[in-house]
Design a protein that fits this description.
The complex is a heterodimer of chains A (401) and B (302).
Chain A (H helix, E strand, L loop, with lengths): L1 H16 L1 H24 L5 E8 L3 H11 L5 E8 L2 H9 L5 E4 L3 E3 L8 H20 L4 H8 L19 H32 L3 H5 L4 H33 L8 H28 L7 H4 L1 H16 L7 H6 L6 H10 L5 H29 L9 H20 L1
Parallel strand pairs in A: 1-2, 1-3
Antiparallel strand pairs in A: 3-4
Helix pairs in contact in A: 1-9, 2-9, 3-5, 5-6, 7-9, 7-10, 7-12, 7-14, 9-10, 9-15, 10-14, 10-15, 12-14, 15-16
Chain B lengths: L4 E10 L2 E11 L4 E6 L5 H9 L6 E6 L2 E2 L2 H4 L2 E4 L11 H11 L4 H14 L15 H13 L5 E5 L7 H16 L4 E4 L3 H7 L2 E6 L2 E7 H6 L4 E8 L17 E3 L6 E4 L5 H11 L1 E8 L3 H10 L1
Parallel strand pairs in B: 3-8, 3-9, 6-7, 7-8
Antiparallel strand pairs in B: 1-2, 1-4, 4-5, 9-10, 11-13, 11-14, 12-13
Helix pairs in contact in B: 3-4
The chains are: A mainly alpha (401), B alpha/beta (302).
Bound molecules: adenosine-5'-triphosphate (ATP) and magnesium ion.
Amino acid sequence: MRGVRLIAVREMTERLRDRGFILLTVFTLLLALGGGVLGALAGGVGPQEYEVAVVGEETGPLAALVEEQAPAFDAEVSFEPLSDAAAAERAVEGGEVDAAVVDGERILVDGLVEGNLEALLQSSAQDLAAAETLQEAGVPPGEVEASLEPDPLAVEDVGAPEASEPGASLVALGGLVLLFLTIYLYGYWIANGVVEEKSSRVVEIVLSTVRPWQLLAGKIIGIGLLGLGQLVLLGSLGLAAALVAGFELPPATFGAAGAILLWFILGFAFYSCLFAVAGSLVSKQEDVQYTQIPLMVLIFGGYGVSFSQLGDLGSVTAQALSFVPPFTPMLMLLRMGFGEAAAWEVALATLLMILATAGLVLLAARIYAGSVLRFGSRVSLGEVWRSLRQDRAKEAERREE
Amino acid sequence: MSGGLELRGLCKRYGPVVALDGLSFEVGEGQVFGFVGANGAGKTTAMRIVLGVLEADRGEVFWRGEPVDAGARRRFGYMPEERGLYPKMRVGKQLVYFARLHGFSSGEAAEGTAKWMERLGVRERAGDRVEALSLGNQQRVQLAAALVHEPELLVLDEPFSGLDPVGVDDLSGVLLERSAEGVPVLFSSHQLELVERLCEAVAILDRGSLVAEGPVAELRSSGSRRLLRVVVRDEGTGESATEWEVGLAGVERADGSGGLLLLGEGADEQQVLDRARAAGRVEHFGIERRSLAEIFREAMDG
Ligand SMILES: Nc1ncnc2c1ncn2[C@@H]1O[C@H](COP(=O)(O)OP(=O)(O)OP(=O)(O)O)[C@@H](O)[C@H]1O
Ligand SMILES: [Mg+2]
C-alpha cells in the first residue's frame, strides 16, 4: 500500500508542477468561469427592456397596467408619448420603439416582436377591459382586482416519488458532456503516463520495487484524484460564476453534482484500466493514438448511445444498456437526472460497475505486466494473450511437479 | 549457503527461445562477481529474475539462504540494461523517490540522495531535470538510483558500457568499496579485461547455461590444458632453439618460435625444464596464465 501511495503522490505532484498541465487547468477554469457568466447573461438574466410608443388619452390606464404586469412577463417597459398614429407608425417602422399602442385599441409592430412584449400588452388590455366591464356591472373596486387574480390552482405531482426535480435533467445533460470529456481526457493521461515510463525505460527500476498492479493502481489513483480535484474546482467555479451573475440554480443541482462525481469515479476507474493497457502496448508516445482507438470508439459510442436514448430513457433498451459497464456511467447519469432510475437500479449498477472494474484491474495488471517490459515494436494484444496463456500452462506444470 | 545470493536451476523460455536452461551459481558475501557471455546468452534474463521483474519458469533464487521475497528485493540495488529515469523529473527529487520506493523514510531518503550525489559528482545538478544532463551524468544519476538506499546486494547489467575511462575508474572504485563493506556485487559486462581486474569470481554463460564458473585466479591457472612459455637460446648459433621438446610425453608446441608449450595429461614441468637446459641457455621459463578472454573463447568452443 505504501508503494501505491508513493506512486500516486508522485503522479500528482509531478503533474501539478508541469507547465502544460497548469496552463491547461487555468485555461479550462477560465473557460468555465466565462461559460458560467456568458450562460447566465444569454439565459436572459434580468428583464428584457422594451420601449413602447403610446398615442391618445385612452392609452393611459393601459400603460399603467402594463407597467404593473411587466415583471411577471420578465420585461421592463418604458413609454414614449407621441402625438398621433402616423408618428407612432414611423417610430415603429424606424425601429425607435418596439411597438406602439394607439388609442388603447391597436398595437403597431414591425414584424415579429422578440420575447413577451406582445403577450404582455394583450394580457394587460384584456385585464383592463375585464376590469371596466366588472366595474360597469357594479362590482366594488376592491373586489375587481381580486376577481381578476384568483388564487392559482394547486399543482400536485402524481409521478413516481423519485421523479426529477425541475432543472435536474438540464444539469444531467451538462453532466453527461462533462463526464464524457473528463473520462476521455484523464484516461488519455493514463495511457500517456504509462508510455512515458515505458519509452524512458524507467519502468524497469520501478517494477524492481513494486508489483505491476501496484504501479497501475498508484497511477490511476494519482491521476484520478487530480482529475476529480479539477472537476470539483471547475464545477464549483462555474456554478459560483453563474450565481454571481444572478442566475438561479435549479434546486436539483447539488444532487446532480453528486451523481456526476459518483459516475466520474466509477467510470474513470473502469476506463483508466483500459487506457493503461492501451499505453502498455506501445513504446513510443506517438503510437498511443493507435492503440487507444478502440477505447475512443467505446467512449464516443457510449456518449452516442446515451444521446440516442434521450427521448426515451424509460425504455427497456435504455434500462438494459445502463447495466452494461462501458455504458453505465453516462446512461445512469442521464437516467438519474431525468428521474428514470429507481434507487435499486442505481445501487445495482454501482455494484456491477465496481465488480467489473475489480475484474478489469486484475486483467489489466496481467496484460500490463506482460507487455510493459517489451520494448521495441508495438505489442499486439493477441501476443500478450498467448504469452499469458503460456505462463498459465507453465505455472500449472510447475505445480504438478 | 548463507551470506549471499544463490541462483538455483533457473529456466526461462520465450516461446520457442530458451533463454535460461538450468542456470545455477552463487555470489558470496562481499564478492565482486562478473557475469559474462555472448549476446543473447541470457544474462539480462537472469538478472531480471533475481530482481523479480521477470518470473522464472522453473528454479528459485535464494538470498541469505531464504527464497527471495518482495521485502528482500526492496533492499537490492538494480541498474537495468535498458537505462532509464523520469526525463522531466528533477534529479534530487527522483533519487529521493527511488529511495522511498525502496522503503526509506523521507529523512533517510534525503540523506542518501545528498550522499550519493556528492559521491558521484552530480550534486550541483540536483535541481535540474534529468533530460538536461549529459549522457555520462545521466549514467551517474542512474548509478546513484541503484545505490541511494544502501542496498545489501547490487545487481548491475552492463554498468560500464558507455562510460569514459574516468567514469570506469569511478565506478570500479564504488563497486570495490561496496564489496569491502560486505555487499555482494553481481555485474555483467563484455569488457573482459575489466572483469578480470575487478572480479574475484566469474560465471561464463552460453545459451542459457554455465560453461565455466569459479574464482578468476583458479580459472586462469587451471583448466584442462596448461600453457608454459620456455625461451631457450642455442649458445652456438645465438638463435632460439626449437624442437628440443620433441618426444616429451604430453607436450606440444602451441606456436612456432614464441616458445609456448601446451602441457596435456601426464606432462611434467620438471622434465621439460631439464630438457630445456640441455638444449641451451634458458632465458624464460614460466606458467602462462590465460587471460579471461582466452578462457572465454575456449569455453565457447568447447
Ligand atoms: N521479451 C522477450 N521475448 C522474446 N525473447 C526474448 C525476450 N527477452 C529476451 N529474449 C531472448 O532471450 C535470450 C536471452 O536474452 P538476454 O537479454 O537475457 O541476453 P543477454 O545475455 O543479456 O544478451 P546481451 O549481452 O546482448 O545483453 C535471447 O535469445 C533473447 O532474444
Ligand atoms: Mg543483456
